[in-house]
Amino acid sequence: MAESSNFCTKCGRGLEPGMQFCPQCGAVVSGSQADADFKKQEAEIESYIRESRVNWAVFALAIYAIPVTIAAFISLLDAGATANTIWMNDDFQNWIIQHDYDISVDTVKNYIMIAAGLALGSGVCALISMFCVIRRKMWKIAVAMCFLASVLCCWSIFGIFIGLMVTWMIYGLRDSFTDS
Asked: Residue 180's pLDDT band (boundaries 50, 70, 90)?
């Protein structure tokens, strides 16, 4: 530990050897044991905050990626049946007639397949980002995949906004990654 200086770095008052705090302003004496303890506690708090941010990023990615990926996969597998169900709905048929649209059941199925494909891509990108954050490796990939997941979430302005916020959060976690 470094020897404390003869003067307070805050107010300039003269200090006696071994003082932990300035008797005039109460500042921690630079190089004292109190200074070392303060710096150690500060490092512990910073580590705790960084770990909390990592946990929040993983949580946000998980609550999006897992259900979206599952729902998109099921939607792709069941697109034909879903399209038929929508097609047979009287309200849907009335809507088509009201708006004079030229839509077939195949068109409905194609829309479902496109939306489910975008959702699946978004969910998979978010899962990749989540695993990178969990492992604290490949920071650039974690950021890029989260950003791509946000862009592919084009069906929801709210989803895009939240995705971009999580991307920014991961961007700020660079120091938490071992290969940043």
From this structure: low
